User: Fold Ankyrin repeat domain 37 from Strigops habroptila.
Amino acid sequence: MRVLGCGAESGSLSDLLEAGAAVNAPADVFGQSPAHLAACGGEAFFLLWQLQTGANLNQQDCLGEAPIHKAARVGSLECLALLVAGDAKIDLCNNSGQTAADLALAYGFLECARFLRTTQHTQTMKLRGQSGYSPRDDHGLLRGDPAAQKQEGETTRSICRKRRRSGDLVS
Assistant:
């Protein structure tokens, strides 16, 4: 069974089920698991079943592609959402150095690419928040609570006024 180009035959998934294929066992010589085949065919229900039975979301085939790459290649937003919800690695690169978002963009699936990039950005920001990252912009200014920024600004202005007054007395 050859599915590398995501041209899965309609009966191939049911054939796997009937044969009792192991959830993470490569279904073919190219190293594609049943989860690869489901994602490649845009079969969200079958993919969900695979995920619930313990499928490895980050298992890579001979091209270095995981199920998330296959879903992006065919523009299956439903499969991508399932994979992301199951904690698939969004930034995983295939042998050509492409992420799933890169593939979605290359194949013209802009909504899928946008979804993946937004999700990756959100995950990155959460990680930075958990690692003690200080939310500062490029100029070193604190981003975040506007009330705290306003209070900080008022304090700075107050100090500057006091310096000016004391300077006026000396002159």
About this structure: Confidence is low (pLDDT under 50) at residues 136-153, 155-164. The radius of gyration is 25 Å. The chain has two domains: 12-133, 136-171. The chain is about 55% helix and 0% strand.
